[in-house]
What we know:
CATH architecture of the largest domain: 2-Layer Sandwich
Number of domains: 3
Largest sheet: 8 strands, mixed
Radius of gyration: 49 Å
Distance between the termini: 36 Å
CATH class of the largest domain: Alpha Beta
Number of strands: 17
Number of helices: 12
Shape: elongated
CATH topology of the largest domain: Beta-Lactamase
CATH superfamily of the largest domain: PAS domain
Helix content: 40-55%
Order of helices and strands: HHEEHEEEHHEEEEHHHEHHEEHEEHEEE
Amino acid sequence: MTLRWHSTPLARTAVVCLVVGATCLRLDWLATQSFHARERARVAEQVAALRSMLEQRLHLHLAPLAASAAVVQLKPDLTTLQFQRLGQSLLKEAQAVRTLALSPHAVVRHVFPPEQARELHVMPGESALGVEQSARDGTVRLAGPMQLSDGAIGMLARRPVYLDPESRLQFWGFVSAVIDYERFILPVRPLLAGADIDVALRHVSPTGAPGTAFHGAPATFAGSPETALIATPDGFWEIGARLRGGWDQPRPYSLALRLLMLAVLLVVGAATWLLRARGLRNKMLLRKLESGEAARVQWVADTSHELRTPITILATHLDAMQDGIIAPTPANLAVLSDTVKEMERLVSDLHVLARADAGAQALQCQAVDLAELCAEVAAAFAPRLASHPLRYSLVDTLPPGCVAQGDRQRLGQVLSNLLGNSLRYTDAGGQLQIGLALDGQQIVVSVEDSAPGVPDAALPRLFERFYRVDESRSRASGGSGLGLAICDAIIAGHGGRMQASHSPLGGLRIDILLPAHAPLAHHGDCP
């Protein structure tokens, strides 16, 4: 016997292990990429929050300059007392502003609070030409953070003031403010000092050229950080943030998860080897149990549904009789009697199927001449066949002496049920044909009728319990919907099977396949 390499348990185990291993590696890669994407999104979210807070802080602490400039435009000759009151009012909200100063003609004259040094309001390294240029073009400047003359870290903001702001021809002077950097940055320090995130701030010129970093490590801007720009009066601040140690950080528990994947791979390999080496018995048993449970649930649901109609009829008529709505006449009592008989037939059919499911069918087997049995059943149906009418024929091609081993009464019950179905559903003037043939070691009993037929979708479901075809074949439908299911159970108890197909006559064909036996081969209970 030629054994292909891919059909051996070892090869199949190797293939399964390769597939599972590749899947585990792919899942590990996807999990890592997802982790990195979440981390970058977390950093970007922190950068956005930091940008929003810094923009709010800048707006808050530059607002006193605009307000002071507006007051000076209305009243250029502010007295010292008036300016002190103005400064006290403006700096209530902007608490990081150390001092506010007025500089008519670029000379510091008024400072609030008055005890603060005036030299703090001088832009470091700015020449007279720079002051003149700022006064001429109206540039608002923000310098720093830097070390002030008193040793503190602060920022200096300066705004030119014009008495005619539209034409900018009457230059009055400057309004300036010294902002304490530590107090300015204090509310945002939690975002600047993340546990695992490095954050840096640097100046960017109006042309986009990066400047020096004034907070954090300059190396933070290397390695594809998450960035954001904040507009300042004379340029930008740039925020840069990235994970401490870089973006390619191992995700938490990655080593443990990879070891777990390896263990899963080994377990899957071992399980595959056992399944392929020992067979799929447990899996098949599980499927059988699941299908049995599903069938049991469906059985209970279908039975309750079928019993509901006759019980409802009985309850309705009895209630009506008790209430005096209808009288207990013989006709009404006949309706109740017919309903009880219908329930008796249904319960009897259910009992037969229950015994078949339990493998407890009482079959008294003997050699059965099927041609003789078919003739007996057809003779019993002769009056109904003539009144319908249906043309009946029997085609017997069995070799002499070929008989079936089975319970004659039960096999007759199956044939009676099939002929009754044909009478019930076949159009008048149609045909009914029974065929007997030998196919190998099986006897095939075929029952065919003429139109109407059965839809293709209904053929595989004809032997299901309580199934009815709701098409043209159900126009005269009656019974419990258990007839074919009982027939199938009886034939299965004989070691055979039933199948349905389309008949060449235009209707339905039911084939009964039974094992062929020699005459008088066995007597007594069917095995």
